[in-house]
Each structure stands twice: as structure tokens, then as C-alpha cells.
Amino acid sequence: MNKGVFGYPLMKIGIIGGGQLGKMLSQKAKQMGFYVISLDPSAACPAASVSDELIVSDFYSPEKLKELVEKSDITTYEIEHINTSVLKELYDEGYNILPSPYCLEIIQDKLKQKQVLQSAGLPVPRFERVESFDISFFENFGFPLVQKATKGGYDGRGVVVLKSKDDINKVLKTESYIEEFVDVEKELAVIVARNKKGDVVSYPVVEMVFDETANILDILIVPARVEKDIEDEAKKIAIKAVEALQGVGVFGVELFLTKDRKILINEIAPRPHNSGHYTIEACITSQFEQHLRAICDLPLGSTKLLSPAVMINLLGDDGYKGTPVIEGLIDALSIEGVSFHFYGKKVTAPFRKMGHVTILDDNLERAIEKAKKVKEVLKIKSEV
């Protein structure tokens, strides 16, 4: 086929995971003319409504993963907790799986991820593998500290803060590592995209504020309210981190800006990321389109920010579980610049990610005020 000439569909894209990221990736893929095959344990997953095919399976079934990969021209994923051993075998046989399962295997193990980044000369918090659960081990490292499970943790799970030896009862009795408790001024993030040729682009630096109760991203502000030199350094570090992992696709790089103005890498996600949802409305190329461009070896798109933006996650209200009920939607949509995204999950639960709202405004502070109003009126509850 001549370069630049495609049939319809353009390609068959296999996506492991049918959650909200899979849904938004599928929506963009369908808009662009791709055929989408999703794999998820639930037949009613968010991506089911926008996929051409759905394979119902857990993320570790060798047979079903092989079926997905063999049916697809390119396979990708929207979740990290999947079977890398079978994917590595298929990748070695020549199947297109991007980001590479070898890259994913590093990222799945948070300790290995830290070691690779450190070996590449990138700034990370001081860390050490947990060799003993005895109090003396933690005392020798120095309190306060953070203990993190090497595998399986996300959205605050598998992470504990130990402020002193009095917190020893909180210790995770699992394979883990400890790192210094960083005195953080702001938490930042950068979405980076890289293709197989090594072309790389980064999106604007964003500022993240977390819900302390659920330890989930609560409000995201873009552009981040930091100095130009901090912004430039954050982008440079994020790009180098993805290059160190030889990543292909879109990556969410989470960073700490310390009180003494240093930037440290917190962790990296090998997929579109919660911190990049604002790109759907606020950038020329959304993170979802960019991911498709990167893995399909298409030219990378412009990351230009069209407008300052604020994004808030819509979490299930505490005390509610069941069929979701959306309260305050009319009031929220009456605010100029609001875009509402509901993920289509059939059941809400306390602090479950049910959707998000992006607010665009030429004035960033005004966008923040509008976001606060949306948070006041827009609630996800459940049927009684």
C-alpha cells in the first residue's frame, strides 16, 4: 500500500481494559476510522458501548489475550495490572503491542521503575527496598517516610505514610520499598507522547490537587501556576523519563515540586492518564488521539493549549452505593465553559471515578472559581 493511503477501517486496535480510559480511547478511535476490539471482565463496561467487538475476560487469561492480539493490528492497554508474561511472548513473536510489555513490566514494579529512572540519572526521592519489617529497619532509613507496595497499588492503595515509630502498626507486610517523605509544594504532571521513530512531544505542565480522604486527583489546573524555569525543567525530566523507558505511546509522568524548588519523579503511567483528560477540550490534539497516533506510527499532533482549563473528577458521594443518580447537572451546565463527561458505569460507590468535568476560561483564576461552583452543585449519588 502506498504511504499515506489507508483502507477502511484504518486498522484494528485491540484495547486491554474497558474502563473510562478505554471508552475515551475507543471514542476517538471510532471518530478516526479505526475498528476497536476491547477486552474487559464486564460485558457492561464503559467501553462496551463504543467498541466494535468486546471480549469478556479477566486481564490474565492467556487464551483471551492471545485472541485479542491475534485479531488486532496493534494492541494497547488502559490498565497496568495485566498479564505481561503472555504479552511478552506474543511481542517476541512479532505482534504489535504498544507500549511494549517489557516497558510495562518495569512500570508494574514500582521499585524497578524507580531503579531504572535512577540509573538514567533522573531525580527521584531517596528510596530503599524493604528488607525487614522490624522497627529498626525503618528507623535506620529515617522518619517520616512513605512505604509503597512494589506491585498492585493505585489511587492511594498500597501506600502508607509512617511519620514515626508509633505508626509501625500501619506497615504493609508485603513486597515493598520505602522512600523519603517529600516536603511538597505542588504536585505536577506532564503528559508525554513518543512514537516508534523516537519523535517526542510533551503537553503543558499541570498542577494537581488531591482529595486527602480518598487520595484521588480532585482538581487539576492547567497551565500549572509555576515559574517558566520550573515548567521547562518539568517537561525536560518527563521526556527523559519516557525515553529512559523506551516508551511508545502516551505516558502520564507525575512529579513533585519540593519546597526547595527541586523536581522529583513520583511515578509514571504507560497510558493516557487522569491528568490528561483536560486535553479533550483544551488542546489541539487530545491525549487519546495522541496515543493512537503514537502507537500507529502516525505523525504526532500539536500539543498546543487552546485555553486555560480546570478539570475536576466526579467521584461517587460518600454513603451512596448503587445505580447512579446525577444531581445538579442543569446548574453545572449553566456555567459557561463547562464540559461534562459521564463514564457510563452502572454502579456508583464512595469515591469511585464516575466522570469528570472540564472548565475552560481565558482567565485561569476565574476557571478555578467556576470549578469550585461545579463541585458544590454537581453530585453523584444513588437510587434509594
UniProtKB/TrEMBL annotation:
Keywords: ATP-binding, Decarboxylase, Ligase, Lyase, Nucleotide-binding, Purine biosynthesis. Gene3D superfamilies: 3.40.50.20, ATP-grasp fold, A domain, ATP-grasp fold, B domain. This is N5-carboxyaminoimidazole ribonucleotide synthase. Residues 114-296 form the ATP-grasp domain. The lineage of its organism: Bacteria, Bacillati, Bacillota, Bacillota incertae sedis, Caldicellulosiruptorales. It is an enzyme of class 6 (ligase). Pathway: Purine metabolism; IMP biosynthesis via de novo pathway; 5-amino-1-(5-phospho-D-ribosyl)imidazole-4-carboxylate from 5-amino-1-(5-phospho-D-ribosyl)imidazole (N5-CAIR route): step 1/2. GO terms for molecular function: 5-(carboxyamino)imidazole ribonucleotide synthase activity; ATP binding; metal ion binding; phosphoribosylaminoimidazole carboxylase activity. The keyword Ligase applies. InterPro entries: ATP-grasp, ATP-grasp_carboxylate-amine, ATP_grasp_subdomain_1, PreATP-grasp_dom_sf, PurK, PurK_C, PurT/PurK_preATP-grasp, Rudment_hybrid_motif.
